[in-house]
Amino acid sequence: METTYSVAFATAWGFRPVFRRDYERAALTHFSRHDAALTPARVVAEHRGLMEVITSEGQVTARLSGRLRHDAAGRADQPTVGDWVALRPSPAPTVVAVLHRQTHLTRQRAGRRTEAQVLAANIDTVFVVTSANADLSPRRIERYRRAVASGGAQPVVLLNKSDLVDDLRLKSLAAELPRDLPVVALSALHEEGFGALEPWLGPGATVALVGSSGVGKSTLVNRLREAEVMATGEVRATDSTGQHTTTHRQLVRLPTGAMLIDTPGLRELQLWSPEEAQRGATDPVARVAACCRFRDCDHRDEPGCAVRDAVSSGELTQQQWIAHEQLQRELAHQRRRQDVREARSQPRRRKKRNLGNKLRAKRR
Ligand SMILES: Nc1nc2c(ncn2[C@@H]2O[C@H](COP(=O)(O)OP(=O)(O)OP(=O)(O)O)[C@@H](O)[C@H]2O)c(=O)[nH]1
Ligand SMILES: [Mg+2]
Ligand SMILES: [Zn+2]
């Protein structure tokens, strides 16, 4: 078996020894005499099932092997931004295996069905970005903190737009947050306070940025990157809500050798607790649902529904289907309760969102 990557590549993109070991195992499993050599690659973006991956040779667009598409137990097992994968570069670049994730940031996907969505993989830190001139909901921060910690990464709260408020306001915001949570006040726009981010931006470190639309995630990425890679958008003056400018997740490398994953603004980051994830992962219906034509398939009258096929062929039993529906109802109920609580703590925000924003948000 050949190894086809350089040490420089491994160091630059955070291909740590744990990934190398897993890669070698995966390569042994997937490598055959007829194969072209495999190579490790890191997912930097994902578009409709196609992966943008970075390899020793540069960036390529890859598809998933048929086996990965069908074997994966639900979307959570599919490669996502930040994942390391084993890639077969030719004839057409194909991801043949996803290497074991060390950490992840996962939310409940908004939609009719409750589903885990891994927003970022193999991240050391999550910058929870907030805007110092907007209200901070300590409850919301606590939810972010728990979601980040349950995926194994370290949360850091960024109070951005410090240029718009005075020091007193910054101090009182920081005081509302749990003491053991690192907090950094900064201005992305004016590049102030960046020095305090250094501990998390060392060579080979990976950081995901999350937070509401318009808080300045992409602005920060661009300034740290020293290049305009991510589009940024004005915040509407009327109610200071963002416009959902960023529409896909993207991993970029900084001059310091750290990697940042920019994400679209979240309306809410719903906790995906390990126990729920566990129940979801052992749900046989979720496994089959990975093969439905539509990702948000309701398994009722959508064309190409693998679940209905499996029930009629007897591959899934009626009982398994009923148990699945029961679980979905419970999770939906729980989600509605969380939404009501969230809406109560932030009454003004929701009403003001205009139709344009709704349409934009739907497209994601
Ligand atoms: N005054 C001030 N404005 C900022 C700062 N950082 C970002 N902004 C502005 O806030 C607006 C939104 O910034 P973005 O970087 O697009 O926000 P985002 O978090 O990426 O938003 P989404 O991609 O929609 O999730 C832009 O007009 C930025 O110029 C800052 O530190 N101070
Ligand atoms: Mg953005
Ligand atoms: Zn279906």
Q: Hey, roughly how much beta strand do the residues contain?
A: 15-25%
CA gyration radius, whole angstroms: 21 Å
**CATH top level class name of the largest domain:** Alpha Beta
- In whole angstroms, the N-to-C terminal distance is 41 Å
Strand order of the largest sheet: 10-9-8-11-13-12
The helix fraction, in percent, is 25-40%
Q: Mean of residue pLDDT?
A: 82
Model regions low in confidence, pLDDT < 50 over at least 5 residues: 347-364
Bound molecules: guanosine-5'-triphosphate, magnesium ion, zinc ion
> Could you give the count of β-strands?
13
Annotated CATH homologous superfamily of the largest domain: P-loop containing nucleotide triphosphate hydrolases
CATH topology annotation of the largest domain: Rossmann fold
SS-derived structural category:
alpha/beta
Biggest sheet details: 6 strands, mixed
Order of helices and strands: HHEEEHEEEEEHEHEEHEEHHHHHH
Using the 3D structure, state the CATH architecture of the largest domain.
Answer: 3-Layer(aba) Sandwich
Tally of alpha and pi helices: 12
Total individual domains: 3
Shape: globular
